[in-house]
């Protein structure tokens, strides 16, 4: 599999161009500048930490000690020599290839020089079952081996702490280096020549080399033996995990990669699921729509759990329900935030990292997210939807019962209380509050699902109570959100603007998708919100003007709606277009530019990977059509 290099973006800023010139001037003969920042990257991780590796095998993003921590490698957001990265370069580089080990999160990057010499870099974060627990150390493992000839390489390990502000003190031993900062110490265990690594001196690759970067801990056995064992065990874990998935007949490779990516978004220690691994990748070039997504949105997490459940992967749901239960209990019947930190932190103050230029020089770089202060009324419906399966699924080790039902009713009462009142909506508008149809819809979903749980638990009085609220809300939502002028359900009560989130009416079972009003809504949205097959979130300008890029999950909602109303061939065509919009490894970010087809927004976006799974499950031919 041979892949071309990513061309320099036409939207690159003056700062990025200046940085490129500086790299050219300073580079050593035979070793060119690194690839420009792009989303042609692979994700490695172990449900405790993660990293992004670019097309040339350079680790360009890694936060420690957890997903929302300090990016010790920040080159994705800092073009030029000021960025920090872990680079293993081949002299006279000509081309590269990058693939995942089949059905795993182990990434292989092959680099070729102009004379035909080649090396392979194997990247992963160890994860496997050991001593009655999942072993997922704070560690990145890199194995480097020669494939052809006698390649000459250079190891360029440059890491900093405190968002690039603090240069660590480096100490060394015979086979390790320690990076000592005020609040963090990292250790590199390696059988590569320490002197060459410290001085960045090129050398011949005559035998396999191993690099293990992580917590300041010694190894219990040899470096090479440990790295190889960890690789074998990690490959075996992921293959066993994927083997248990219930897959559709078609698009299995795409679904497996999406499922692994979603699994890697789980912070297993607490059960939180992050929306993405990055911060401040703009939604569109120069738009300043740069947000920090390294937190757990209850809305996004529900969709992740639902998608993995459709593949019969229950472990993530069980972990998430543990986290969700703690959120509900901590709220004590009061306000629930739309998002929390992955350790359940409530305060996520938003600030700027001014000394980082941003992705391709497009700042600002944000840390934290002001949306934690928002009132987003759909949150209560998302809690109930996320928890509902625990009352119905007999496979779960810890099934929910009457005690948990009482707790869930407190969330339902909040859904009733906020129903029909203005909020920031699911798109987190910062300067505008309305009675959003999608928020009212989720209040209905909360009442509807609690009623069905009451039926399951044989609590007829409670079932009637919740069914009554659901009926009342359903009638009112249909009446107040319908726009006669637009012949569509509008984004707010009494409004006329269109919003893709209204398509969730069919997905959550609010309306028969064949209802003429829903069919008309889909058609109106295609005319107003779509640029070809790609769908934007809404048509009204927001705090930054009109959106320029398509929001991937909205396109997947459109695919689902088209399939439900009987236009399956059209849905399949759009799905194939979205599959083509993934990067070379099958991963998607948040947004797609309808003209350039380039990916924008934080990466990898769980919403987008959810859409791949949902669309494949909805559209695939059945297994009994071939067996």
From TrEMBL:
Alphabetized UniProt keyword annotations: Hydrolase
Transmembrane segments annotated in the record for this chain: none
Pfam families on file: Glyco_hydro_15, TREH_N
Record lineage: Bacteria, Pseudomonadati, Pseudomonadota, Betaproteobacteria, Burkholderiales
This protein's name: Glycoside hydrolase family 15 protein
Domain of life: Bacteria
GO biological process, one term: carbohydrate metabolic process
GO molecular function: hydrolase activity, hydrolyzing O-glycosyl compounds
Organism: Xylophilus rhododendri
The UniProt record lists the keyword Hydrolase: yes
Trehalase-like N-terminal domain residues: 31-185
